[in-house]
Amino acid sequence: MENSSKQWRFEGNKRLNSASAISVRGVLDLVIGNLSTDDLRPTIPLGNGDPSQFACFRTSTTAEEAIVDAVHSAKYNGYAPTVGVLSARRAIANYLNRDLPYKLSADDIYVTSGCLQAIEVALAAINRPGANILLPRPGFTFYESRAAYEHLQVRHFDLLPARGWEVDVDAIEALADDNTVAIVIINPGNPCGSVYSYDHLKMVAETARKLGILVIADEVYGHLTFGSAPFVPMGIFGSIVPVLSLGSISKRWVVPGWRLGWLVTSDPNGILQKSGIVESITGFLNISTDPATFIQGAIPQILENTKDDFFSKVIVTLKEAADKCFDGIREVPCLTCPKKPEGSMFVMVKLNVSLLEDISDDLDFCMKLAKEESVIIVPAALEDGLRRIKAFHQRHVRKQ
């Protein structure tokens, strides 16, 4: 018979709840949960960077054949090395070397389970008691979620819409102190669709060097540009400041579910090795999981043999979608787009709540858009996500 007076000694980890509340996945689950079950219209999923959900995007036959070949070879059925399969690391280094003034080697490459794990590795490796990190606002909220879990203090610098969402470099110097360890740069931009110039990135690198901090360069949308500005990898400035470059095949090859990414030490001066960051990266991977070995085995063929016409088709489709989205937004009185997107798969839109009835903020707008129109989008400012989600629930309960 159950003893109802028993005092159990375990309870849920509240840190996970707080971190999840400011994650894209957590908020997406909330918004999707507000879809009307009586609405027979197909849901329009615009809330995350998963192009594979749309028929106009499909990966290259080269990538598909590479996976088949890797499986049939029977060479990739076992455990992978901690840092990744050597042939995959070499191939990634060669792929990235096309855009760099110096040469990466396989020793600079760490294969990860998508770019999300690369973020986890980077933040864990740089963390120490009292440390803080500089994050862009608007930005990719997984950084806030993971920093919250790691007890890594976050300080936000603004991106400037009037200047194409460039970094407010002056603000960086004002925010940083002796406990600041890194700055995150997302280029091409998520969620702003911005693409930074060589000169702007060099200015960021020189500022980081002045402050004595490293740069985490999130380049998961690398080369997905369709405006006048070409993609410039932050690793070009590795001789100025140490750079942890993060990327994956998820977006450019339209396969986010394959979960194959990388973390790269773009650091020809060896500062990351001397400071112990490299050892910390390996240490994290030793207690973490790996991407599937057969996908790692397929990477050389994917990176080396995919034809340019596949990439060109993806870029044309993204540009057409960006143009239509930007033109459509201009026709809606309560919406403003400060800058037409020139890269990635996102657009940042300003919502004028004063022109709407019974809408309190952007989260409220997203929830009601899902319920009334079966369209899924996400609010941009989620740094205070837990408070806002609780406030939404309280308003919803009161109305019921």
Task: Describe, in short, the structure shown.
The protein is an alpha/beta fold and 400 residues long.
Strand segment tally:
12
Q: Total domains, how many? A: 2
Overall outline: globular
Measured as a percent range, the helix fraction is 40-55%
Structural class: alpha/beta
CATH class division of the largest domain: Alpha Beta
* Content of β-strand: 5-15%
How would you describe this structure to a colleague?
The chain is α/β, with parallel strands linked by helices and 400 residues long. The chain has two domains: 77 residues, no CATH class; 232 residues, Aspartate Aminotransferase, domain 2 (3-Layer(aba) Sandwich), CATH 3.40.640. 40% of the residues lie in helices and 13% in strands. The protein contains 14 helices and twelve strands. It has an eight-stranded mixed β-sheet, with helices on both faces. The chain has a two-stranded parallel sheet with strand order 1-12. The chain has a two-stranded antiparallel ribbon with strand order 10-11. Strand 4 and strand 5 form a beta hairpin. Helix 3 crosses helix 11. It is globular, with a radius of gyration of 22 Å. The model has no long low-confidence stretch (mean pLDDT 92).
